[in-house]
Amino acid sequence: MVIELMKSHASVRDYKEKQLTREEVSELVAAAQHAASSHFVQAYSIVWVTDPEKRKQLGELSRNAQQMEGAGAVFLMCADYNRLKHAGDMQGEAISFDHAENLIVAVTDVGLLAQNLALAAESKGYGICYIGGVRNNMEAISDLVGLPEGVFPVYGLTVGVPNESNEVKPRLPVEAILHENAYDEAKYKTLLPEYDETIQRYYQERSTNQKVATWTQQMATFLRKPRRPDLKGVLAKKGYLFK
C-alpha cells in the first residue's frame, strides 16, 4: 500500500555495490516526471552522474564522499529555466526568470519531481537519501557538470540497494502541523515538549548512533546562525535576481 510505503521511509547512507542500469534509471525518471508542475513549465532537470572521477569530486565538494561514491545511482536535482529560454526562442519570445516567483516555481517543481523519484525507487526496494550538501559548493558543482545560466543544483539524490536498515524517525505529531481555519501557535507549548520526549527516546533506543538530544535543541543549534550565505550571489550569477 502506498501510504504504508511512505510512512516506512528512512534515509539510507550505506549501499551495496550494485549500480542501477540505464533501464532502471529511465523507468524511475519517467515515473518522477508525472509529478505536478506549476503551469506545466517543468522547470527541472536531472544530471545522472556516472563518471567515477566526477562522483569522487562531487563527494568532496558536497562533503558526502561515502554516499556519492558508494550509491547505486547519483542524481543532481536541478532547477532549470535554460530549457524554457530555448522554448521562448522558438516562439520569438525573450524569457525572463529573474523574479522571486520563478525561483519558487522551479524549486517547487524540483521538490515534487525528486519526491516522486524517491517514492518510485523505494517502491522497487531501493533506499534513497537527499544530499543538501551540494549547496555547500554550488558554483564548483555547476562547473563540474556544466550547468549553464538558469540551471542550478537544489540537492543531490542517492539511490541504491540498502546495506543497512534504519528505524523510522518519529515525525512531529499531525496536530503540530495541521491547523484548522486559523494558525494556532499556542499549542506548541504543549506539543513541542512532548515531541522532544519522543525524539529523545528514539535516539536512545535506536540500534545505532545512540545519542542524547531533543528536536528543539537540534533546531536551535542548527538555525542559530545563517547557513550558506554565498547562495544569493551564486544564484544571481545564474540569473535568479529575486526581483
From TrEMBL:
EC numbers, comma separated: 1.5.1.38
Presence of keyword NADP: yes
Major enzyme class: oxidoreductase
CDD domains registered for this protein in UniProt: NfsA-like
InterPro entries: Flavin_OxRdtase_Frp, Nitroreductase, Nitroreductase-like
Keywords: Flavoprotein, FMN, NADP, Oxidoreductase
GO molecular function: FMN reductase (NADPH) activity
NCBIfam families: PRK10765.1
Assigned protein family: Belongs to the flavin oxidoreductase frp family.
Protein name per its UniProtKB record: Oxygen-insensitive NADPH nitroreductase
Organism this protein belongs to: Planococcus glaciei
